[in-house]
Specification:
By secondary structure, this protein is of the alpha/beta class. The protein has 14 helices and 13 strands. A hairpin with a 3-residue loop joins strand 9 and strand 10. The protein has two domains: 241 residues, Rossmann fold; 78 residues, Alpha-Beta Complex (CBS domain Like). The relative contact order is 0.12. The chain is globular, with a radius of gyration of 23 Å. The protein starts with 22 loop residues before the first strand and ends in a 12-residue tail after the last helix. Helix 5 crosses helix 7 and helix 13 packs antiparallel against helix 14. The strands form three sheets. Strands 6-7-8-3-9-10 form a six-stranded mixed beta sheet, sandwiched between helices. It binds adenosine-5'-diphosphate and magnesium ion (MG). The site of adenosine-5'-diphosphate has 12 residues, from helix 1. The site of magnesium ion has 2 residues, from helix 1. It comes from Luteimicrobium subarcticum. This is ABC-type quaternary amine transporter.
């Protein structure tokens, strides 16, 4: 256990200039002992910063759901204090509290006898919006989660796929634009490809709305993809490490974190680290038919393009080592831009991808402009 101290004093986390006012959810020495004596959470102190996604990840039974459910008082803490947006939750009316926070769970929990639109409009209705406004909001939210309101609004939940139901669950939770959203294995019931897509779309929506999110998952991939920070839990609600995803993957603080991260850390790092402008090397122009990557693409995508360059017609350079060179374009280059795009920033090869990865996992280099770094 390394993280039982207040966040601001944690070594290595960039907390300079932060104040408690930047925290949307604060746990102070929270304990939950169930009636049968199970200590689900022993002594948890933790803060979720405003507008961030904090992912709680850990093996089954380590206290993640209990932690989440104490936040909206579906579970009452035995002791300690939880403050959400400046309010001690035990002093707030439970029903009001629950309506002020979005809550998304794996089994979705849609109302089977209400249409999709009615499901999404539930909380707006409960908090007193008139029907027209609630309906308009439902359409807006369905649009936001990628479901055509005209097509889906009148359907019933059983007429949707699992992934579509999850989207409706997210839309419903966001209907009143709550400052805080609690999510418990929200994409668990979706197949892997659909899950990836949902994760990406959810990320975009969260950035757009600025919602503070506490996300519970047992899936380290989901945690590092979605979390701005990741809290790795072990049994009893013990925080083994609370850090940004790259640090969790590349510098696990304890054996429990290493076990969770497993052997897949390098591959996962490639999936969450992105091509930056500095990664493009000058030098000769790329071959006009070279594959392209954009600033902001994942290194995994870049590596794939490099591999393609090595086998694609004309892309390979004899003796250039593994793979070929790809052209690096700015993030806003048009979708059909090719390697001869006038805005091309340079090229990238396999060694460049590895250098980018190395740079990403290095703890805060003293001088970022040092070419040897
Ligand atoms: N209502 C309950 N009564 C007794 N024990 C419970 C109850 N809910 C959860 N637990 C126990 O608390 C521990 C933590 O559970 P939970 O928070 O659901 O873990 P996680 O979400 O990480 O899988 C587990 O040992 C679980 O069996
Ligand atoms: Mg759980």
């Amino acid at each position: 256990m390394v993280d039982n101290q207040p966040l601001d004093r944690r070594p290595g986390s960039s907390t300079s200039g932060r104040t408690a006012a930047d925290d949307a959810i604060v746990f102070e020495h929270v304990r939950k002992e169930y009636a049968d004596g199970t200590v689900a959470v022993g002594d948890l102190s933790l803060a979720v910063r405003r507008h961030e996604i904090l992912a709680l990840v850990g093996p089954s039974g380590c206290g993640k759901s209990t932690t989440l459910r104490m936040t909206n008082r579906l579970v009452e803490p035995t002791s300690g204090r939880i403050v959400v947006e400046g309010t001690d939750v035990t002093r707030e009316d439970r029903v009001r509290l629950r309506r002020s926070m979005g809550y998304v769970i794996q089994s979705v929990g849609l109302f089977p006898h209400r249409t999709v639109a009615q499901n999404v409009a539930t909380v707006p209705g409960l908090v007193g919006w008139d029907r027209r406004r609630a309906r308009a909001r439902a359409s807006e939210l369905l649009e936001l989660v990628g479901l055509d309101p005209d097509r889906y609004g009148k359907r019933y939940p059983h007429e949707l796929s699992g992934g579509e139901q999850q989207r409706v669950g997210v839309a419903r939770a966001l209907a009143t634009d709550p400052p805080v959203l609690l999510m418990d294995e929200p994409f668990g019931a979706v197949d892997p490809a659909g899950r990836r897509r949902l994760q990406e779309e959810f990320h975009r929506i969260q950035r757009e709305l600025g919602t503070t999110v506490m996300l519970v998952t047992h899936d380290i991939d989901e945690a590092v993809r979605l979390g701005d920070r990741v809290a790795v839990f072990s049994r009893g609600g013990v925080v083994e490490q609370l850090d940004d995803p790259v640090a969790v993957l590349s510098r696990p603080a304890t054996d429990a974190v290493s076990d969770l991260v497993g052997d897949g850390a390098p591959v996962r790092l490639l999936g969450i680290t992105r091509v930056s402008r500095e990664d493009a090397t000058a030098g000769g122009p790329p071959a006009p038919d070279a594959p392209v990557v954009r600033v902001g693409d994942t290194l995994a995508a870049a590596l794939e393009a490099v591999a393609e360059a090595s086998t694609g017609a004309g892309g390979a350079e004899a003796g250039a080592g593994v793979g070929g060179r790809v052209a690096v374009l700015p993030s806003d280059a048009p979708a059909d831009a090719r390697a001869d795009h006038p805005g091309v920033l340079g090229t990238l090869d396999a060694a460049g991808v590895l250098a980018a990865l190395r740079r990403a996992v290095e703890p805060e280099p003293a001088d970022r402009s040092d070419p040897a770094a």
